[in-house]
């Protein structure tokens, strides 16, 4: 990443149209006078002008100050935090040891089992989100996880609660 050029949009934002044109020329492999290069530069400039007239300068702290925006920001952060706390990554990191305790010695078998379970649960999840929306899917997922945690807690030899 350190050796890559800046994107043409970034260069044009910084009033460096020549650098943007050079990047586009190298990407397309055509001469600088090629109509595609001219069209691309013009299109980027038009989009940047349209964004600046529409009020495109939003500061970063606006994610906490706009209407309903703090709620959405906190909700997104909480979803990611709870996803991490659910423990799925535990099996991806320590799955071989867990499965070894159950009698499966081969780590490639463990990886195949984890990948298969991941695939078999991701595809229906995508379908459900597409069909019913994110809200009902999140609520149903949270409730089912809560129920599974309660069942595992109360059926453990030494209950944790």
UniProtKB/TrEMBL annotation:
It is a multi-pass membrane protein. GO terms for cellular component: membrane. Pfam families: Sugar_tr. It is found in: Membrane. Keywords: Membrane, Transmembrane, Transmembrane helix. GO terms for molecular function: carbohydrate:proton symporter activity. Its main location: membrane. It comes from the Eukaryota. InterPro entries: MFS_sugar_transport-like, MFS_Sugar_Transporters, MFS_trans_sf. PANTHER family: MONOSACCHARIDE TRANSPORTER, PUTATIVE-RELATED, PLASTIDIC GLUCOSE TRANSPORTER 4. This is Major facilitator superfamily (MFS) profile domain-containing protein. It comes from Coniosporium apollinis (strain CBS 100218).
